[in-house]
Amino acid sequence: MNAETLDLARWQFALTAGAHFLFVSLTLGLSVLLAFMQTAATFTRKPVYRRMTRFWGQLYLINYALGIVTGLVMEFQFGLSWSGLTHYAGNVFGASLAMETLVAFFIESTFLGLWIFGWNKVNRWVHLAFIWIVTITAYASAYWILVTNGFLQNPVGYERGTDGIRLTDAAAVLTNPSTLHAFFHILGGAMVVGGFFLAGISAFHLMRRTPEHDFFLRSLRAGIAVAVPAVMFTVVTGGVQLAFVREIQPAKMAAFSGSDAQLARLQAEAVAKFGPGDYLPSVGAVRGAGLVMILLFLPLLLLGVISLLLMAYRPIALRFRLWHAVLTAAIPLPFVAMTAGWIFREMGRQPWVVNGLLKTSDAVSDVSPAAMRGSLIAFGSVFALLIVVNYWLLFRAAARGPAATTLGADDAPETRPVLAY
Length: 421
Fold this sequence. Notes:
The chain has one domain (3-249, 281-404). The protein is mostly helical. The strands form two sheets. Strands 1-2 form a two-stranded antiparallel sheet. A two-stranded antiparallel ribbon has the order 3-4. The longest helix is centred in the first third of the chain and has 42 residues, at 3-44. Helix 2 (47-81) runs antiparallel to helix 16 and helix 6 packs antiparallel against helix 14. The chain is built from 16 helices and four strands.
């Protein structure tokens, strides 16, 4: 295995997985908010909830469509760059990757299509069921991905064979604590992303004195009402997860705490068990990502609580431009926290791709540095373009406001009863 190939393959996976995670976190967060908006519209028949569903739903679709492209690349990564991993452990996690594909690209996308084209054409209760199925399958898809990742972090339910490992206990893999802890932590984090995105876009319009102030004040309240408890939930689930990580990956926590003595002891123990080599993760990467993830909790919580108080008095909520500007500027913070958390989780188990079983250096494909460099440039360029296009389209559509929304549009005025509502 060429050392340059390994470094390039790791950079390629880090960039593509990290970029994909940006799309996923917003998709997961917005899907729940969207489902509740449409639930309110269906039960109350109030036009404002219908308009909210259409406006925020259009932003959701932009992010979802471009995120799908990045997700497809992630499936190719295993065969392209990490054939050693699939040969060694594919018998264990291959089924979970297949399930994620079935859920995301068949069930979720099918019902999302029905939701998009079902406006004003199907019964309002059926249409509501579509968006709830989309939301549930989105989180089911996330769960199946975390089944795979949880096994890489904490291998369970397997036995060694002559050419790798094979599955012996599916229940153990499906209920892996590493999977379940991460699932609930990401669920909370995604709600923080969605809540602050909703609040930030709404604050932007209130700051501009958009005529749709009632629409965006209601959206702002919804975003903050979700974001504040979600921040607390994320912190609690993160604390539970860190306690478990200390048991299964002590080197990660030693790197985070900067304990040189503990790192030296763990390195010596690993050498005695696995033979010569460097068995410690990058202290700088792990500690830096962990600190960013944890330290962003305070400003997000403080901003959320202050926002709750300011929203209690309508004139301030409508006219306090400094607060609106801060909320708008805070939109990227949850994305940064989520990305830092991902770096902390993945970098902390190095040099293992399957913790304690398969080294990253043994999992990389046997390709030349030139081929890997070419694929890194190609994937990096495409992903950079997708990210720029995605956020340009998002904020372009967001800035135009609900009047320019085309999703669910019909020829009748929105205040007139229609078939769906």
